[in-house]
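Researcher: Next entry in the queue.
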Amino acid sequence: MSSSSSTKVNEDSISSKPEVLKNWKSKLFVLLLCAVSFYAGWQASRSHLVKQCLQAGAKVTVVDSMVICEMP
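Model: Structure for this entry, 72 residues:
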């Protein structure tokens, strides 16, 4: 009797989750979207820094993916 009640509890806890979270493909897709969003934000930030340096009349150099702004 305890195994059937335990199984019922497990089924109830699984059925209480939203359908989207049950699917591992959806989880992978959300993880991919987060990674792409992070990378896009990082690149936008770098682009903004380069534009600010150029507007200030500085020389921009990139060393090992690090942006260096050298003032004259």
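Model: Residues 3 and 9 are 10 Å apart (CA to CA).
Researcher: Noted, moving on.
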